[in-house]
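Please describe our next protein:
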Amino acid sequence: MDFLVGLYFFYTFISFYFLTLYILTYAQNRKQIHEVIKPDSIKSLSIVIPCYNAENLIGKTIEAQLNSKYEGLKNIIVADDCSTDSSAEIIKKYAKKYEQVMYVKTPSNTGNAAGAKNYGATFADTELIGFSDDDSVPSRDSISKMVGYFNDKQVGAVTSRVLVEGNKNFLVRAQAIEYKIIAFTRKLLGFLEAIYVTNGPLSIYRKKAFDEVNGFDVKNMTEDIEITWNFVTHGWKVHMAIPSIVYTHPPETIKDWFHQRIRWNVGGLQTLGKYKKQIAKTGMLGYFILPFFAFSWFIGLTGLFFLGYRLFEYISMKILVATYSVSAEVALITIDSFKLNPNILFIFGIVLLFLGLTYVVVALTYSKEKGRVIGHSILDIFIYSFFYLLMYPPLLIVAFYKFLKGYNTW
């Protein structure tokens, strides 16, 4: 068998495997996707908000936490990572007005979210500890819909569903679709005990488990992925509450988006490198999460390769045929040119495309907004599926290169 054909078959097999896995998991658990578990007790909770130069949003973030319906919310600890704007003054005003709000400042700028989070965590003495980004706004009942999972003493972490705030341009709208698909997929992975990240906008941890893994890794650019793998390594369960919604502000320009996703992917590779020895060990981390993460990279990079190869092959053949036809004085187009000869690789590609679009529609249906079944126009879905996703493979190549070069800058 030709190497490229074999590689394409392997790529197709992995893609079909994950799509089939998602479909079967969805079919078996669809009635539990929006489940809310009632807490068996009111557990004390501290929320830590790492803040750096967020003067335009930090007030709204603090107010959202103050408006929480959860009765056990004891402290809102805002950890100022030596901001140079007016963030400190804004936080201090809230701390003076509300007893729940505590202002703390890192001894020096840590340069990353993990450092500020860990520093803020030292002031928490509650059973649960949560973290929220300085630009994130949770719904009033978000926390209440998360804490019920901690009825199970083996649960160490619970994460929320992140949605996009705003509808400014095609990039923001594409990310709005992406975030919904990520959330839906993460919930399905939760049924398999294979959640690989507890997001930054709003996640809650059992303080005992958080202390056991020594908090966040300040050397990792995606501390939310690393701590999740650390939890699983130590035997803690991780869940997701999809009815728990938190809104975030995504990048609005290609430059900012590219920078953010480079950080995400370099951090993911850092985590993969740190835990690579756990493969085929440590339960679901070694037998599913690690392979899942690695194969996701394989699919992203291989997809770009095959697309580029097909385009190159098509254009090259057209040029060669045109050159030969002109020199030989034969017709460029004959009746044979219109014969359809689909091969198995082409059929596989069409089936994958159809299944992928179906998955997108199902995921968006479970994130419907304002009474609309899907919540997005056909044009937005088209742009996301055929243009936005094509931005990823080149980004993955750059991220891999930066990872090899030791890139570690926020």
